[in-house]
């Protein structure tokens, strides 16, 4: 079964509920690079509550991935 | 009301424990005196290496599982880098229990009382309305941590003492017994992920530790099930058995049944089966170990008590944790061998039949522990006898004291180490 | 690691689907059977109790709520017909010390609900029902209070009702349990 994909012209991420751990996690895969991250429930809740401004800051390409 | 029979006053120049523990007898108050239990917590359970769980119980990054370390509720976590930690389940703010579920997956824990949040390594990550503390990151607080955590073949041990012998030093020769167990997996790995049975036992923990390598009791306590199933186990613990009881040092001991199984030279006899019943397993063992597979399959799994609380009974693992002077809990599970699905199903099924509150073996042992606890509250005689085989002990080729299959060599080793720990100055 | 549950048959409590209550069952008749089963267990009538079971019997006492897959994880009891027989043979020796002397027992069964039907290996449909229980056990160790919910499956052979399946979910099965030497 193929995992659902959240996709646009800018990014492509597959999404799955992962039950390999001791409780369920969200498994996210950046399909363009293969990088995988798991998010637990408390992390997801935290993301939901991120201030839009904070989330926008994280989108700055020099913030993490292309720190330069 | 628990009766505690007190021995004669301690003679000058003699420690309390040198008086209670003789080479051939131990005093009944060791099992019933709450002050001795309190001292054991300090000098044994909060100091030496105590078995807590297995790495396979937290297989994924950020997995956690609640465990017991003596009277302490601890959370075994695996951080995102794979390192295993033992946190004490108590919020640094008001002392509340932080984790309530038995297990889960989370990179951080949030106390339900006021929302204080910790990383799964124990560090305080933050607290709500931080102006009340002068801002973020103002507090040097965190969850309590078991200061020393180490594992051997995935078996996780914790020591609440910041300093002391290393886990390898503590395990000593007993490490080789864990290796023997792991060496029965074609992949050289075991997991303890088949769940735990929890057996509440109204007995002092030491009755269990002593019984685990007591080869004198099986024919009596387990005669009912041996007779009904035609089990050959009873004969391993008879007077004519060639098995030996070995004092492995540091309080560890084993019933080494290999001499018996070598005589029979039948692969998997120790497990009550034959190679044709588990062909894939035997093939996988031959693939991994070549000619040595035969020896492994003939000699079987260890029967070893690792001081103070890990008992490997061939295919079961027991974790014994004290609750009070007259109460403890036995946690038991089936060993699972990596790369051996045929064996694993059988091990689960056999374990369900044998151990836990309704087990056809362990419920009877537990009945004995509980009757024993009631018995030692009687006034006379004050002493328990541990001299069986003292006159026929010998030293094996590796320098360990050994006795016959039914001798109390293991108990004497236990008490020797117990006394050393209890007499140690803080 | 351990056992891959994908390689195992479905867990027996949810295997197949819950069908409609099969025809020909009367709740009073079912209750009478449950009371009889309880009395035989309470009075340690091992022969009478054993005779209630069918050949495809399953007697299950899980840990941790409804339990995990019983072929992959440990349970307090997971007995097929053969192991029920072994368990009873052991206790009949009189040297099963966890149950010698036997517990003094009485239990109350209530909240009996007919739940549906469950297909069996013979192509028939067994009656599935649930009931609550409270049991007082007295032993030299002290008194124990046991309580929980039992799911039963029953089959008729002519006029005779037989026990096919009994799953006992103890209310405290997430905690350490004392020795369970009697027939729960």
UniProtKB/TrEMBL annotation, chain A:
It comes from the Bacteria. This is Dihydrodiol dehydrogenase.
Automatic annotation (TrEMBL), chain B:
Pfam families: Rieske, Ring_hydroxyl_A. Keywords: 2Fe-2S, Dioxygenase, Iron, Iron-sulfur, Metal-binding, NAD, Oxidoreductase. Residues 49-132 form the Rieske domain. InterPro entries: ARHD_Rieske_2Fe_2S, Rieske_2Fe-2S, Rieske_2Fe-2S_sf, Ring_hydroxy_dOase_asu_C_dom, Rng_hydr_dOase-A. It comes from the Bacteria. GO terms for molecular function: 2 iron, 2 sulfur cluster binding; dioxygenase activity; iron ion binding; monooxygenase activity; oxidoreductase activity, acting on paired donors, with incorporation or reduction of molecular oxygen. Belongs to the bacterial ring-hydroxylating dioxygenase alpha subunit family. This is Aromatic ring-hydroxylating dioxygenase subunit alpha. It comes from Nocardioides immobilis.
TrEMBL record, chain C:
GO terms for biological process: 3-phenylpropionate catabolic process. Keywords: Dioxygenase, Oxidoreductase. GO terms for molecular function: dioxygenase activity. InterPro entries: NTF2-like_dom_sf, Rng_hydr_dOase-bsu. SUPFAM superfamilies: NTF2-like. Pfam families: Ring_hydroxyl_B (PF00866). Belongs to the bacterial ring-hydroxylating dioxygenase beta subunit family. This is Ring-hydroxylating dioxygenase subunit beta.
């Amino acid at each position: 079964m193929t995992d659902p994909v959240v996709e646009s012209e800018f990014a492509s991420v597959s999404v799955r509920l992962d039950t390999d751990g001791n409780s369920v996690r969200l498994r996210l895969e950046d399909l363009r690079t293969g990088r995988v991250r798991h998010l637990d429930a408390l992390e997801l809740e935290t993301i939901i509550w991120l201030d839009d401004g904070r989330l926008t800051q994280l989108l700055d390409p020099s913030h993490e991935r292309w720190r330069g | 009301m628990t009766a505690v029979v007190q021995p004669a006053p301690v003679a000058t120049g003699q420690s309390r424990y040198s008086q209670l523990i003789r080479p051939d007898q131990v005093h009944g108050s060791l099992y019933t005196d709450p002050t001795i239990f309190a001292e054991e917590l300090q000098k044994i359970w909060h100091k030496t290496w105590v078995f807590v769980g297995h790495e396979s119980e937290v297989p994924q990054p950020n997995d956690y599982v609640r465990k017991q370390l003596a009277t302490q509720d601890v959370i075994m976590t695996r951080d995102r880098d794979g390192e295993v930690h033992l946190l004490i389940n108590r919020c640094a703010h008001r002392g509340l229990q932080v984790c309530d579920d038995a297990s889960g997956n989370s990179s951080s824990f949030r106390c339900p009382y006021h929302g204080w949040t910790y990383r799964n390594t124990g560090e305080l990550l933050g607290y709500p309305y931080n102006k009340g503390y002068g801002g973020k990151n103002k507090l040097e607080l965190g969850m309590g941590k078991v200061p020393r955590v180490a594992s051997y073949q995935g078996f996780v041990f914790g020591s609440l003492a910041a300093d002391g012998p290393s886990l390898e030093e503590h395990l000593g020769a007993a490490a080789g017994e864990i290796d023997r167990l792991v060496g029965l997996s074609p992949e050289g790995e075991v997991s303890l992920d088949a769940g735990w049975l929890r057996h509440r036992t109204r007995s002092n923990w030491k009755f269990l530790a002593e019984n685990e390598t007591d080869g004198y009791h099986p024919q009596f306590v387990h005669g009912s099930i041996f007779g009904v199933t035609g089990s050959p186990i009873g004969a391993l613990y008879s007077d004519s058995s060639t098995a030996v009881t070995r004092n492995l040092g540091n309080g560890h001991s084993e019933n080494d049944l290999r001499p018996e199984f070598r005589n029979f030279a039948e692969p998997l006899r120790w497990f009550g089966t034959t190679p044709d019943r588990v062909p894939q397993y035997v093939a996988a063992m031959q693939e991994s170990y070549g000619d040595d597979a035969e020896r492994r399959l003939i000699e079987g799994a260890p029967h070893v008590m690792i001081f103070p609380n890990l008992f490997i009974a061939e295919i079961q693992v027991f974790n014994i944790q004290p609750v009070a002077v007259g109460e403890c809990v036995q946690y038991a599970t089936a060993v699972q061998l990596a790369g051996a699905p045929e064996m694993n199903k059988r091990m689960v099924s056999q374990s369900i039949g044998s151990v836990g509150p309704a087990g056809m073996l362990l419920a009877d042992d537990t009945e004995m522990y509980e009757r024993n606890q009631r018995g030692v509250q009687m006034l006379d005689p004050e002493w328990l006898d541990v001299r069986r085989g003292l006159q026929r002990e010998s030293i094996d080729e590796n320098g360990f004291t050994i006795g016959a299959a039914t001798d109390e060599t293991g108990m004497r080793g236990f008490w020797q180490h117990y006394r050393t720990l209890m007499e140690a100055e803080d | 690691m351990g056992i891959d549950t994908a390689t195992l048959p479905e867990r027996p409590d949810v295997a197949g689907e819950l069908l409609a209550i099969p025809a020909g069952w009367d709740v009073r008749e079912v209750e009478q059977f449950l009371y009889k089963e309880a009395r035989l267990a309470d009075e340690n009538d091992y022969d009478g109790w054993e005779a209630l079971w069918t050949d495809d019997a399953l007697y299950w006492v899980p840990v941790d709520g409804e339990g995990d897959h019983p072929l992959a994880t440990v349970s307090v009891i997971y007995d097929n017909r053969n192991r029920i027989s072994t368990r009873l043979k052991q206790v009949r020796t009189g040297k099963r010390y966890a149950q010698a002397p036997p517990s003094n027992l009485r239990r109350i069964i209530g909240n009996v609900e007919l739940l549906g039907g469950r297909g069996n290996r013979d192509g028939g449909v067994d009656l599935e029902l649930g009931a609550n229980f409270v049991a007082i056990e007295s032993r030299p160790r002290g008194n124990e209070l046991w309580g929980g919910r039992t799911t039963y499956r029953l089959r008729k052979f002519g006029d005779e009702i037989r026990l096919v399946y009994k799953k006992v979910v103890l209310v405290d099965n997430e905690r350490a349990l004392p020795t369970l030497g009697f027939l729960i």
